[in-house]
Amino acid sequence: MRLLSLAKKGSPSKGGLRAFSACTLALAALLALAFSASCSRAPRKAELIVGVEEEPISVDPRAGSDQASDRLFKLLYRGLFKPGPNLEPEPDLASSWEQASPLVYRVRVAPGVRFSNGKPLTARDAAFTIESIRSGTVPSYRKGDMERIASVAALSNDILEIRLNEPFAPILLALDAGIVPEGTPPDSAVPPPGCGAYVLKERVPGQWLLFEANPFAMPAPKCSTIAFKVIPDPVVRALELKRGSVDLVVNDLPPDSVAAFAKKGYTVARSNGTNYAYLGFNCAKPPLDRAGVRRALAMAIDRDSILKWLYHDLGRPASGLLSPENWAFNPAVASIPFDPSRAEALLDASGLKKGTGGTRLRLTYKTSQNKVSRQLAVAIQGQLARVGVIIEIQSLEWGTFYGDVLEGRFDIYGLTWVGIMDPDAFRLRFASNAFPPDGLNRGRYSNQSVDRLVEAGAAEPDPAKRRAIYAEVQSLIAADVPYVSLWWPDNVAVAKPGLAPFVIPPDGSFAFLASVGWNFSQGGRD
Q1: Average pLDDT in the 135-163 region?
Q2: Residues 165, 311: Cα–Cα separation, whole Å
Q3: CA-to-CA distance for 312 and 10, rounded, in angstroms?
Q4: 304 and 443 Cβ atoms separated by less than 8 Å
């Protein structure tokens, strides 16, 4: 954890950012008013209140793939394995494991662990959870991770045997799915019992998620109760943090409010993040089915300017899905440069010449109703207009937006991948057999060479050979441009004074909340 270095302020002078300068000034005025005003405080819902942008789409850890659901899962559930500090797998609900042969793994379930309903955890629960995903009983994006499993069985109460139909190097990280009790039905509105630090006690749609400590959690969480307060508007989240109705916000504040909080004595924790912000293209829809067109659009976007003025440099320009912290990162892959002249030449060469009024083509850009996401869309709209590409922005309610993305109803969309650990992530996001709902290839991208390589990488046990395979994958994808790589956002948490020091994991996972508590010797919660 490092304290925030306050960014220097300035007025954007290029890159299409003038369109939202007035919004930035309005935000600053609102925050200034909040810092000077005396506000009443609502009764506390929990010992620790976290402001979040969205509520989860699913409460079943086998099903949800959105960030809001993942945040909930990290409080309620645990898997057999979890990513360690170097993004390699380490045991979680497993106490030990062995690879009996290239295709057979045996995992011993940790003794003494109980679900939140008091039921002891057994290997049968783990086998049931994995099989429900593998078989498709529960529609899950994780199915792509489980398809290499030929069979899964409990040899005893504490020994789980997994047999593969072919070698699969990332199998242990694939076993980070939250374990649920044997017999749990498919995705429902009620969270299944879990082995995580908390249980969900109450949910008020669109407003609150209230958690209580799991009485069987090992170790027990620092706070007995936690609440997620759902606040879709980022400016309102900042105001509620100042007012005291929210104690902590993680990666959900307007970038230009962070420096103001630091100046007022709030705890600001900032660290390099491994999440990946990107623009996705519909690679199955002409003219976006041509790599030259996609590259031209990427070259017309001034990412450095947007990152500086809109995001206040709270991130690093990205060259691809894997961040430099990942062991398989390929430093030889360069970011696409901002070059509008070259972009226009590529569009001309693709037959997309300027017509009446200088327009080459019209595209729809879909985004959520998050204000910063909308500002990003406006910036990109202005920059693409300069090369003759007219963008219609559709800012949609989260559920509608996410559904459209999964169904392929878009030309361009903007999102962030979270939780990228093993480079096998390329297979589920770019293989031509990984279209939703069984995979995460939302843009319907297809490249036979990438298909061959990601399969080889999944089967290769030697880390050095895997690194070489994924270096080539990264080069091919960079050349094809199914995504515009934007940046790896920093992890930024802002907390009320008195919250004890904490560390955010590189992927921004909310699992760290179980170790967050108040330092009452320094005033604590007021």
Answers
A1: 91
A2: 46
A3: 10
A4: no
DSSP string, 109-151: EPTT-B-TTSPBP-HHHHHHHHHHHHTTSS--TTHHHHTTEEE
CA distances in angstroms from 440 to 443, 445, 454, listed in the order given: 9, 11, 14
| Distance, CA of 487 to CA of 464 (rounded, Å) | 27
Query: Cα-Cα-Cα-Cα dihedral of 143, 144, 146, 149, to 10°?
Result: 130
Q: Residue 203 is which amino acid?
A: R
Helix orientation angle between 21-36 and 255-263, rounded to the nearest 10 degrees: 30
Question: Three-state DSSP class for 277?
Answer: strand
Which CATH number applies to 276-489: 3.10.105.10, 3.30.930.10, 3.30.70.141, 3.30.70.920? 3.10.105.10
Neighbouring CB atoms inside 10 A of 124's CB total 17
In CATH, what class is 78-174?
A: alpha beta
- Tell me what pLDDT residue 370 has: 85
Residues 6+ away with beta carbon under 8 Å from 180: 60, 61, 62, 77, 125, 128, 129, 192, 193, 194
Q: Which two tokens stand for residue 38?
A: 């005396």
Residue 30 has pLDDT above 70, yes or no: no
Residues 382 and 279: their CA atoms lie apart, in Å, by 15
Q: Is the dihedral of CA 52, 58, 60, 63 positive or negative?
A: negative
Confidence of residue 399 (pLDDT cuts 50, 70, 90): confident
For residues 390 and 17, give the distance between their C-alpha atoms in angstroms, rounded to a whole number: 16
- Give the strand pairing for 361-368 and 412-417: parallel
Cα–Cα dist 121/373, whole Å: 42
pLDDT-derived band at 213 (thresholds 50, 70, 90) equals very high
| Topology of the domain comprising 46-53+197-271+492-522 | D-Maltodextrin-Binding Protein; domain 2 (3.40.190)
Coil vs helix vs strand at 306: helix
Instruction: Tell me: pLDDT of 27 over 60.
Output: no
Q: Which residue has the tokens 């759902």?
A: 230
Which strand (E) or helix (H) includes residue 491?
strand 491-495
Instruction: Specify which residues 204 forms β-bridges with.
Output: 208
Domain ranges of the chain: 46-53+197-271+492-522, 78-174, 276-489
Type of residue at 217: A
If we measure between CA atoms, which residue out of 43, 17, 111, 66 comes closest to residue 401? 66
